[in-house]
Design goal:
Oligomer: homodimer
Number of helices of chain A: 20
Strand content of chain A: 15-25%
Largest sheet of chain A: 6 strands, mixed
Distance between the termini of chain A: 38 Å
Chain lengths: 543, 543
């Protein structure tokens, strides 16, 4: 969703900075759950950096997949690396749904950031604080520490940087639905997973209290998951397993009142997967007794019930014991502010470059001259054209007007429209751990090879200016995606429409997730957690 | 402190109930961290219970050492067992100091209560709620559940019982020192240990922030432990190890600012141990750089500093980053209320029984007639006399008046005075896990053998009434006590003045604590936590 827009902004910012009156500088940033964008490059700064031995200061905001992956791959002997994040650890987020039910423990999936860089040479600093303002003009970030009772002052401080890596991640998207923030759990951070785990146990303990009506017991054990994406579905499956494999034995009297339901605004769950997987998941959930409410849109959440609408039934209100909101993620306010600051004139700048004779309009020929570079720089344009069976950019123009007659020329408004359409409809890189990790290591690799690539640029030719870009643009290599469905069954979709579902895939899932751990320590912990669960079951302490 | 008083109450309550006009009944209760008291016994109820197969309802308040130990040993085929506790798990409290620094994980030392009884036959109920009122007259307990947002009403309910086991545990004793509850950590529950762990990491992260003065860094890393008992000393030792073995590598810049100090009102730490252990501990702490402030009494804790007094220096105020209060435990308000209800006429009743001719005074002879039974029932009387080199109860009378002339007779006020003196000065059973666990299993054993012992009583003769008590009174078997001092060294004091300190004792500590775990699950978890710590060190995530 946001990725494409940012790709444009990326180019725009670069264009703006390339005008002679601007001070040149380099700033890299990684945005969202992992959309990597780099804004502008400055060879002057680099020469200082490379020539004198005065190491440049790289500031990383955030310790998620992109930030941690960058940190692990950056050569700290070349840069002074400083990290600012509200959390002093990296979280292996794909296992968060497992933490909600105690299949693995919270601490087994986190790795302290200081551990990641401890054995590296070079200066490294970590500050546990949240960045609340980026000032790219003065190359400063303003941060605020999580102030306790025992620190004087406001806990605010300013960090200056030479290069800034923005990898603060996204936040849950509530679509401004009233009551969601107050009453729903999210599943984005380790703390969220811990809270959900505690909350599940509290629901069971409440339902088991004496002197409750049957209705009240049912209400307490009504678990509602809003959003049928991979996170919501995996959590529903985990919860179902937890209830049936462990809690049913411990709470035999209230077992019959448990109800797990998944509310999805679309017609199906797991829509980003192959239809075969969606179908398998829906059938499995049906067999398991997980209540699938598709085509229901949640419009309000109170402390007692959830209101949703459906074209057929109209508004429906159901009571609930616990609700988990997992409808996707949105951009953090700090990033939106930042984008405003650096990305005001994006499309205009591209237009200016393509319009070499300053005629105020682009002809098909003018566009064709820079099309190869546009494609390489903004792969979504090419992908979009291909997926819509268009032959070139001029097809897009035709289409953008909804007019069968092909346009010969287009002005800046039409050009904006054409690009906006690509961005609104093209399939963006998903905001997944896989994407973010690849982006982080790509960017670290760029930093590490900066000197070499300065001399021998390997990227596409520059749209503005001379020569080539130093680096090849980032290309995402999709390695497939898992969707655990509970009952030791997992769906796996490989690139190229390979689909596999079943118990064997679950074992593949175990081995891939174990191997992808950030350290041997967490690998050992996660594997021993799985072992413990096989032998003793999950822990039901309301801790 | 409270144990002796309760022993009197125990007898008192029994006496009160023994008068013919009272309906007979049986109520057992375990109070405090483990003082076992049983109130009155009713053979009628027992006959109903044993003869008809209508199982009696045993309600247990609390899931600490005494409650869990009782629960593990009670034969649930003989009784309906119901447990009310605010926590649905048992905590292996001796490992709490290890949890504060991540040497073991919080979940490794807890066992869900439902797991303990799952494989037993018979009815079992657990309610996660806190008992706020005991009504012994109507045999009811009033409970309040930890109400969340999703339960209707106040969450209050009433449970009736045939037998009540009160094992609610104690609470930290602040001696009403201002600011302690608001600003200090305690170390009584698992949640406390988790909070301390998080707080330690927060202190380090705060001290590592940029733009702080040296003074502020020092303040944040000033760890203060108030109370030089086993808990405080073990926590200080754990923290010292954590800082030196793990955090020093991760926070090299602020390592030098760390200061750990133990504030003790008395002249020495670990005063309940042999002097050799005290001395060894004090010397080790000195070598380790742990600041021992003996003869300092804390009078106030604000959010920034701690005020204490010392006869030599007067009032001193020191800033701190984190403070842990571990000066001992006190009685919960619910128990004090309960004692008032059942123990109003305790001494009076004993007096009445001994004063067979209703003369209003006891002669030495009258006392001597029941002295054997008093000794067996209230062992503290005998112990007190022995430790004060008195020959008999009449010596106590003499002493109680502060009069060298021996009293021939004494009235009820003098008798009360004499017993109160015993209770105020005698050494009580310590409020330790060991005592509580033995009391719990003793009591469960009594319940299990109730039928047999009804026919063949094995206890001392009854002070009032005929025949013998059914059960031998509880006798505590002290198996020694550990005091871990950090650096893989532990002190161990066996009964009979055997003392051992060193690395080998640490291994003894490991094996004893592993073997004492409540389940194979927690045993495996604790041992694997120790292994993980040896290999990878402790986790420093501020989670």
């Amino acid at each position: 969703m946001a990725s494409g827009a940012w790709s444009l902004v990326r180019g725009a910012a670069e264009a703006v900075r390339r005008t002679p009156r601007w001070r040149k500088r380099l700033a890299f940033f990684v945005v969202g759950a992992g959309t990597l964008t780099y804004a502008c490059q400055d060879s002057q700064v680099l020469q200082t950096c490379d020539g004198t031995g005065n190491k440049k200061k790289v500031v990383i905001l955030g310790t998620g997949w992109a930030g941690a992956s960058f940190l692990r791959n950056i050569d700290t002997s070349l840069y002074d690396v400083h990290v600012v994040s509200p959390r002093n650890y990296f979280t292996f987020t794909p296992l968060l749904p497992s933490v909600t039910c105690g299949t693995v423990e919270a601490r087994s999936i986190v790795e302290p950031i200081r551990n990641i860089v401890r054995k590296k040479s070079g200066a490294f600093r970590f500050w546990e604080a949240e960045c609340f303002k980026i000032d790219p003009k003065n190359k400063k970030v303003h941060c605020r520490s999580d102030v306790g009772t025992n620190i004087n002052g406001s806990g605010e401080f300013v960090v200056d940087y030479d290069y800034l890596i923005v990898s603060v991640g996204a936040r849950p998207n509530t679509f401004n639905t009233p009551g969601v923030t107050e009453n729903c759990h999210f599943l984005k951070e380790v703390e969220d997973a811990q809270k959900i785990r505690k909350s599940v146990m509290k629901c069971f303990e409440r339902a088991a209290l004496p002197n409750l009506s049957e209705e009240e017991r049912k209400k307490n054990l009504q678990f509602v998951i809003i959003g049928g994406g991979p996170t919501g579905v995996e959590f529903a499956a985990e919860l179902h397993d937890f209830v049936n494999e462990d809690l049913a034995k411990l709470y035999p009297d209230v077992k019959k009142y448990v109800n797990i339901s998944v509310i999805e605004a679309g017609g199906h769950i797991l829509t980003m997967f192959d239809k075969r997987i969606t179908q398998f998941a829906e059938e499995k959930f049906k067999r398991d007794g997980i209540d699938l409410k598709t085509n229901f849109k949640v419009v309000k959440v109170s402390d007692k019930d959830i209101t949703m609408t459906n074209p057929a039934t109209g508004e429906v209100t159901v009571p609930y014991g616990m609700a988990v909101w997992s409808t996707g993620i949105g951009t953090r306010p700090i990033i939106m502010d930042f984008m405003k600051q650096v990305g005001q004139e994006d499309v205009a700048a591209i237009f200016r470059v393509a319009d070499k004779d300053n005629s105020g309009t682009l002809t098909v020929k003018k566009i064709k001259d820079v099309l190869g570079d546009i494609y390489e720089r903004y792969p979504q344009v090419e992908l979009y054209l291909k997926s819509n069976q268009m032959k070139g950019f001029h097809d897009l123009l035709k289409d953008s007007d909804g007019n069968s007659k092909e346009l010969k020329e287009l002005d800046i408004e039409q050009f904006k429209k054409a690009l906006a359409q690509v961005d609104s409809q093209v399939k963006m890189l998903p905001a997944t751990a896989q994407v973010a990790a690849q982006e982080g290591s790509y960017l670290a690799d760029c930093f590490n090879r900066m000197k070499t690539c300065e001399e021998y640029p390997e990227g596409p030719i520059r749209i503005r200016g001379q020569g080539r870009h130093r680096f090849k643009p980032f290309r995402y290599r999709h390695l497939g995606q898992f969707a655990p469905l509970g009952g030791e069954q997992t769906a796996y979709q490989l690139p190229g429409d390979w689909v596999h579902v079943g118990h064997s895939t679950q074992w593949l899932w175990y081995s891939v997730y174990a191997s992808k751990q950030f350290s041997w320590r967490t690998r050992m912990l996660v594997v021993s957690d799985w072992g413990r669960r096989f032998i003793f079951g999950r822990d039901s302490s309301s801790l």
